[in-house]
Every structure is written in structure tokens, then in C-alpha cells.
Design brief:
single chain, 264 residues, OB fold (Dihydrolipoamide Acetyltransferase, E2P), 2 domains, three-stranded antiparallel sheet, binds zinc ion
């Protein structure tokens, strides 16, 4: 029996599962931690003494851990009373590439969501994606799926079936992508959009498959490097548009210039 399980659960205390998205040092030995939870969305919490060598909670509040937390409601930040790791996602600690991708998805989620907005679908997506990254499944695939599915879960899904400008069904040809307009433009409408970039038929097919059938269907296909790059740039551009700021971790990941590391 842990110390905190003897604390009666009263109105001030509540237990939740949570994934650690971000953390910063605070004061002498404390940490402020940003977590994502299934029923309460994103929370900012404080773990007092978490940086002390013998801290009971500190080891359960590492980056990307999925942990069970006992929290006490505070005036500004809820306070960690107890923490137990459910899944440390150990594989993220042994692969720099997987860790980089995990940082990227955590940052996107952090930037695209407000505090205390419940989104169980986004929580499940985060949990599943970290689990697969930790298991060394193709990080490009997991990350693109996360980006697309998160945009959909938050109501930012781009239009990929009809021209975002004229509304006509898109034909099987090279069309154009416009982050500003929120999706694909037909060749006739492309002329008026300065920021539009060409989008190949292959890239459109993969994104539609991702949208309609999800990760498993896309994972069965060998996607050429050029098409991977094209989709990655398009998603990054759209996410930049949504977050209105560069994604810091994406730049860091690119600057590492890692060799491809695929699991299949
Ligand atoms: Zn059009």
C-alpha cells in the first residue's frame, strides 16, 4: 500500500491517468508539468520536490510516461500527491529518432489544445502513437498519422476530396495544396493562390487512404521517399498555419539529419 492510497479521496483529490507532454524546473526543487488526460484534457500541474534525489513522484513524471496521478486541486495549478508509472515507453529512451518524433507530437498537441478541454479521442491517439513509436514502428508513418488524426479530432481536418475554392470534385491529376485555404485546389483555381504548392497524385492517394482507412492501411504500402517528403512538408506547412508558429521540435529533428531507420 502506497503512502498516498491511505489519503482519503475527498473533494480536493482526484485520480487520473496522464501522459507527460512537457515539464520545466520551478523554484528550488519543484517541477511544473504539462500533462494530457483522458477526461480533463490538458492540465498544468506542480510536483513539489520532484527534482530531489529521493523524490517519490519524480521518477514517474518523466517525458512521455503514461502514469496514474493523484492530484489535489490547487488555486492555480493542481498539485501531485502521488504518481505511479503505467507505461514508461522505454523504447523512446533508446532511439534518438523515436524520441524526436515523440517530442514533435507532444508539442503539436500542446500547441493545438487549450487547458481543461476534454478530448478522449486525442488522448487515445497520443497514447497509441507513443506506444507504437516506443515499439520502433516506422516513426514517419506514426507521426503523419498522428498529425492527420489530431487535426481531425480537433476539427481542423483539411479538405482533400473537393477543391476548397470552387467545390468541384478533384480529378486524378496533380492538384495544388493551399494551407491558407485549408486543403486541395483544382488546377483552375490554383492560379489565384500564391501560396499553393503542387500536390502529386501519389501524395493525394496516400492522404486519402490515411483519412479513410487509417494507419494500418497506409502501413501496408511502400511509400517512395519523395512522396513521404512531399506529405511531410504539406502537413508541416498546414500545422504551422494552425499553430501560427514554427514547431520548434520539428526544426531540431530536421537539424539532426538522421539516417532513415525503418522497422519494415
Ligand atoms: Zn477549384
Amino acid at each position: 500500500m502506497t503512502e498516498s492510497s491511505r489519503i482519503p479521496l475527498n473533494e480536493r483529490l482526484f485520480r487520473t491517468e496522464a501522459i507527460i507532454l512537457h515539464r520545466m524546473d520551478y523554484g528550488e526543487a519543484d517541477r511544473i508539468i504539462v500533462v494530457f488526460t483522458p477526461a480533463r484534457g490538458k492540465l498544468r500541474i506542480i510536483a513539489k520536490g520532484a527534482r530531489k534525489p529521493l523524490s517519490k513522484t519524480g521518477p514517474h513524471l518523466e517525458f512521455f510516461h503514461r502514469s496514474s496521478l493523484l492530484l489535489a486541486k490547487g488555486r492555480d495549478l493542481d498539485v501531485v500527491s502521488d504518481a505511479t508509472t503505467l507505461d514508461p515507453h522505454e523504447g523512446l529512451r533508446t532511439s534518438l529518432e523515436a524520441f524526436g518524433h515523440a517530442s514533435h507530437i507532444a508539442e503539436i498537441l500542446n500547441r493545438l489544445t487549450e487547458d481543461r478541454q476534454e478530448n478522449p479521442r486525442a488522448y487515445r491517439l497520443l497514447s497509441d502513437s507513443l506506444h507504437l513509436l516506443s515499439d520502433n514502428v516506422d516513426p514517419w508513418m506514426i507521426t503523419r498519422h498522428f498529425e492527420w488524426a489530431l487535426l481531425s479530432a480537433l476539427g481542423y481536418r483539411p479538405e482533400i476530396y473537393r477543391c476548397v475554392n470552387c467545390g468541384n470534385d478533384l480529378q486524378a491529376e496533380t492538384n495544388a495544396w493551399s494551407s491558407q485555404q485549408g486543403g486541395v485546389l483544382c488546377p483552375a483555381c490554383r492560379g489565384g493562390a500564391d501560396a499553393a504548392r503542387p500536390m502529386s497524385l501519389s501524395a493525394q492517394k496516400i492522404v486519402r487512404l490515411l483519412d479513410r482507412e487509417g494507419l494500418a492501411a497506409v502501413a501496408r504500402i511502400a511509400i517512395p521517399e519523395a512522396v513521404r517528403d512531399e506529405i511531410e512538408l504539406i502537413f508541416a506547412d498546414y500545422l504551422r498555419q494552425q499553430t501560427e508558429r514554427d514547431l520548434q521540435s520539428l526544426r531540431v529533428l530536421r537539424s539532426l539529419d538522421l539516417p532513415p531507420e525503418r522497422s519494415h
